[in-house]
Every structure is written in C-alpha cells, then in structure tokens.
Design brief:
With about 170 residues, this protein is mainly alpha-helical. The protein folds into two domains: about 90 residues, no CATH class; about 80 residues. It is built from five helices and three strands. A three-stranded antiparallel sheet has the order 1-2-3, covered by helices on one side.
Length: about 170
Amino acid sequence: ASANLVLGETLFWRNNEWSIRTTIQKTHLSRPEPLVAPLHADYGKFIDAVLLGDMPEELLPEIRSRAIKQRRQLFVLYNGKRTGPSYVPMMFKTLTGNSFTSTRAMIHTDGARHFGAEGLERAKIACHQTSDAVVRQHYYQEAVAEVFASNLRNKRRARRAGILRAQEVGETE
C-alpha cells in the first residue's frame, strides 16, 4: 500500500531533508512512474519526531541513521513490530473519520475553493494525478456551480439593497 512508508526504501534522508520515492497504489496502473519529491520541512519534523519518540534530540542523527539501515517502517506497533500494509489507512480512517479517498477529494475541494484553477492543479500534483478527467468531472463543475450561486446571491443582495434605498428615499420625501 502507498502508506507503508519505510526508511531507506520509500523515505530518504539526503542533503539534510527528507524525500519520498514511492508508488501510489491508486494511480499505479494509469501512471506507473513513482512519486519522487522532497518533503516539506514540517513533514520532515514529523518524521523525526516519530523516530525520536521520548529520546533526547541530540540522538536524532544516530536514531535516523539506524532506522534507515534497518529499513524501519515509519509507523510501527507499540512493541516495535512491523504493521501490515493496510494499518496506516485503517488507523487514519479510525482517527479522522475519513478515508484516503475522501481526503483526496477534500484536497481538491479546498484547492478549488481557496485558489481556483491553480488550486486544482496543485491538488492534482499532490494527489499524483496526470489526467484532468476526475478534476473535470467533479471539481470544475462544483467550482462553476459555486461561482454561479455566488453571482446569483450577489445580484439578489444588490436588488434588495436597491429596493431598500428606494424605500428610504420615498420615506424621506
């Protein structure tokens, strides 16, 4: 599964930053190229915090190096044993109430809502999608509908404001 992150196999420490190289299960058949990218510094801090646990921060380089050599999974069970491939998606859904698919939809929706077409492009990249089919099918239609609804609300407000102004003028005469 795509969420089965293993240090030294899918997560790499190079040039003082974490990077990822993994196959995305959902898009692998249509896009067999792996997802390869440096991770945002905040994600790197999260990985380091998971590795470090309660240990002193001075031990981080040694712990990081050992975890990479041992090909340690990022997420392990409380007793240090490896998890199954579906463990991370299952725990994610348990803790957040959302599946990875729902989360991907939220990324697209938030991208469209906050950044318009550019947000949809960013979401497509973040979700390792090359085709516009899903975006066209769902999010552009939603974005167009939202713009239409917003324009309609603004016209109604303007019309109401005009009626109120006309009434106010009539009352003062």
